Amino acid sequence: MTNYRIAWITIAALFAASCSAAETPAPAPVPKSAAAKPAAPPAAASAQAATALPHYVQVASGSNLTFTFVQEGAANQGSFRQFATELRYDEKAPSSGSLNVKVQMASAETQDKDRNELITGSDFFDAAKFPVAQYVASSFAKRADGGLEAVGKLTIRNITHDLRLPLTLKPTAKGFELSGKTAIKRLDYGVGQGEWKATDSVSDEVKIEFTVSLARSGS
Q1: Architecture of domain 30-217
Q2: What is the DSSP string of 75-113?
Q3: Where are the domains of the chain?
Q4: Based on the number of CB atoms within 10 Å of its own CB, is 167 exposed (0-12), middle (13-18) or buried (19 or more)?
Q5: What is the DSSP string of the chain?
Q6: Residues 99-132: tens digit of each pLDDT
Q7: CB 185 within 8 A of CB 146
């Protein structure tokens, strides 16, 4: 067989193969209804789980939030007259709970008018510029003694730090009594400007103690 006949046969075979491939029907598209739906993002799923938990809010009476500091070697105690607490909690799923506490800083009371004006002023809380301090926890952990620990963040003067807050939850007829205590460093949050950054007059450590009455909410 001559070379030119071999070439023509090869070209014809290739042409036939390409035509056959062109005539093969394309796979049918998958209907949209049959396509797998994307999974919800983990953060969205976690938020949905949290809002599904029982909701508790602070009642008007039976709650207190106090702070203790050392001034000139003597312990002094103050309190906040206005604060609000929200808790989402199910004892069967404590890690999914949340806690939100908002404190009106101008409501600080130390039983001394001049001292009240000082600590709510610009050198300490600066309540005019930073009216609200807030603690937000998005989960709870079990403590070794069987109690709870809120895992969250505390913000004062627009400065935020992590804070694990020990809690005790005692069931009541309407909901829970939430109580606990901790200690923070005031200078970590900018509480004490100018001459008040020194700790020889006012201690850096401030002890916080709270008891909050919570009632079950319908939301």
Answers
A1: Beta Barrel (2.40)
A2: EEEEEES-EEEEEE--TTSGGG-EEEEEEEGGGEE-S-H
A3: 30-217
A4: buried
A5: --HHHHHHHHHHHHHHHHHHHHHSPPPPPPPGGGSPPPPPPHHHHHHHHHHTS-EEEE-SSS-EEEEEEEETTEEEEEEES-EEEEEE--TTSGGG-EEEEEEEGGGEE-S-HHHHHHHHSTTTT-TTT--EEEEEEEEEEE-TTS-EEEEEEEEETTEEEEEEEEEEEEE-SSEEEEEEEEEEEGGGGT-S-GGGG-TTTB-SEEEEEEEEEEEEE--
A6: 999 999 999 999 999 999 999 999 999 999 999 9
A7: no
pLDDT at 91: 85
Using one digit for the tens of pLDDT, what is the confidence trace for 83-96? 999 999 998 888 89
Structure confidence by residue, pLDDT tens digits, 12-53: 443 344 444 444 455 555 554 444 555 555 544 444 555 689
**Which residues neighbour 50 within 8 Å (Cβ) at sequence distance 6 or greater?**
88, 96, 97, 98, 138
Neighbours of 79 (CB within 10 A): 16
